[in-house]
Structures are given as C-alpha cells and as structure tokens.
From TrEMBL:
Ranges for domain Ferrous iron transporter FeoA-like: 1-77
Naturally occurring in which organism (per UniProt): Sphingomonas chungangi
MF terms (GO), sorted A to Z: transition metal ion binding
Keywords recorded for this protein, A-Z: Iron
Keyword Nucleus: no
Keyword Iron among record annotations: yes
Short name of one Pfam family: FeoA
Coiled-coil boundaries: none
InterPro entries, alphabetized: Fe-transptr_FeoA-like, FeoA, FeoA_core_dom, Transcriptional_repressor_C
Protein name (Swiss-Prot/TrEMBL): Ferrous iron transport protein A
Superkingdom of origin organism: Bacteria
Amino acid sequence: MRLDQLPLKCPAKVAAVAWDDLAETAARRLRELGLDEGVTVEALHVAPFGKDPIACRVGRMTVALRRAQAHCITVEMAA
C-alpha cells in the first residue's frame, strides 16, 4: 500500500521508497527528515477535498508531504 492510501490514524512501517521517482530536492528532504525503510509512519490529516498536503507522523515528528511524494512511499500496516 502507498502512504497516500494509508487510512488515517493507522500506524505503518515504511517498506520501500521509490527514490528515483522523487525530485532530487524532495528525496534529500525526506532523507534529512529520517524517512527511510523501517521507520514508523502514520497519516494524521489530509487537506480538504483530498488535496495536498498530507500531515504524517514520522517517528516522533509531524511533517507535511505532498501527495506525489507520499505516493512514492510503500508502507506495510503494523501488526
């Protein structure tokens, strides 16, 4: 499942990130925020009408991601 499809308030682990599909600056920002395989993420809030941004908890931080960036992140639901 992609991060942009993750139901709100459902913790998941990042399984993979399609780094090649992201712009270089976006990929660098996500790496600096610590978003990589194995990190726990949780979608907290989506802008009205399903638009950008998506507020996500990454570890202990809350970050805003564009929908296109979230689409490049594959997650697995936490058991």
